[in-house]
Write a structure and sequence with these properties.
- Helix content is about 35%, strand content about 15%.
- It is an alpha/beta fold and about 280 residues long.
- The radius of gyration is 18 Å and the shape is globular.
- It is built from nine helices and ten strands.
- The chain has one domain: Rossmann fold, CATH 3.40.50.1360.
- Bound molecules: fructose -6-phosphate.
- Fructose -6-phosphate binds near residues 37, 38 and 138.
């Protein structure tokens, strides 16, 4: 995991946007995995600015969002569909057919989840997955106790997540109790993961993710097993990291190294593929 600390939310967002922009520069038909919530709002704003200033072409990009509340139609102002159009898709001028979100009102939610996995596969897999972290260490809506190998499914939200997200609704009672969410297994297959955190409230789960044991009690800790996760936070979220000085040293030493893995454009270099091939060869 590459751990980077930026001085504030603005710098973190700018850095995150530059990384996503670089994926699209290297691979114009990239598949972007996206998150909602307050953390990536700044990244999306910076990405729209970058796209305009640098004339970046998003016309061949495909997007997949991590999750959606059960029961909220796409037009509901608190749906993640609405969030994405407001904060990113509109600004990048994306066409609806380029974007993919789970439907919280599908007649058969289990099939909706299976088909979503299939769509990701058909699109060639996710090149970069943008993530935020929950106060309880969740990623997407994979709450503590979720299988670290889980696939997209219908999940129950933790009471802390319900109360954390109540700020987006008129009352806490309006927050849906369940959601459809990519699983940790789904997320882990992305070629790159980019996880962001801001504020003191994230300091505990952030240190759990980076320095704690890999445990379903802190679902984000599964990213320790991912071959290329970039973890960027502001100084407040990094305030409980024990090895902060070391991460800063590594960041300085790596300053002239590519920020993205070579397997974004050369999938055969992905170490996970090499492991699969080794198993095939031995079989
Ligand atoms: C939403 C998502 C969630 C959020 C997390 C943090 O798509 O994936 O895991 O990233 O709940 O939310 P904020 O950024 O609002 O603190």
């Amino acid at each position: 995991m590459f751990v980077k600390v930026e001085k504030d939310y603005e710098e973190m967002s700018q850095r995150g946007a530059e990384i996503v922009a670089e994926v699209v520069r290297q691979k114009p038909n990239a598949v972007l995995g996206l998150a909602t919530g307050s953390t990536p709002e700044g990244l999306y704003k910076c990405l729209i600015d970058l796209a305009r200033k640098q004339n970046l072409d998003f016309s061949q990009v495909t997007t997949f969002n991590l999750d959606e509340y059960e029961g909220l139609p796409a037009g509901h102002p608190q749906s993640y569909h609405a969030f994405m159009w407001e904060h990113l898709f509109e600004g990048l001028g994306l066409r609806e057919e380029q974007t993919n979100l789970l439907s919280g009102i599908a007649g058969d939610l289990a099939s909706e989840c299976v088909e979503y996995e299939e769509k990701i596969r058909r699109a060639g897999g996710i090149d970069i997955q943008v993530l935020g972290i929950g106060g309880d260490g969740h990623i997407a809506f994979c709450e503590p106790g979720s299988s670290l190998a889980g696939r997209t499914s219908v999940v129950a939200l933790h009471p802390q997540t319900i109360s954390d997200n109540a700020r987006f609704f008129e009352t806490e009672r309006e927050v849906p109790r369940r959601a459809l969410s990519m699983g940790i297994g789904t997320i882990s297959e992305a070629r790159t993961c980019l996880i962001l955190a801001k504020g003191e409230g994230k300091a505990d789960p952030w240190s759990g993710m980076i320095e704690g044991p890999v445990t379903s009690q802190c679902p984000a800790s599964a990213l320790q097993l991912h071959p290329w996760t970039i973890a960027i936070s502001d100084t407040d979220a990094a305030s409980k990291l024990k090895n902060l000085e070391y991460y800063q040293h590594v960041a300085r030493e790596r300053a002239d190294q590519p920020v993205l893995p070579p397997w974004i454009v050369r999938p055969e270099l992905d170490p996970r593929r090499q492991a699969e091939r080794a198993i095939d060869t031995n079989a």
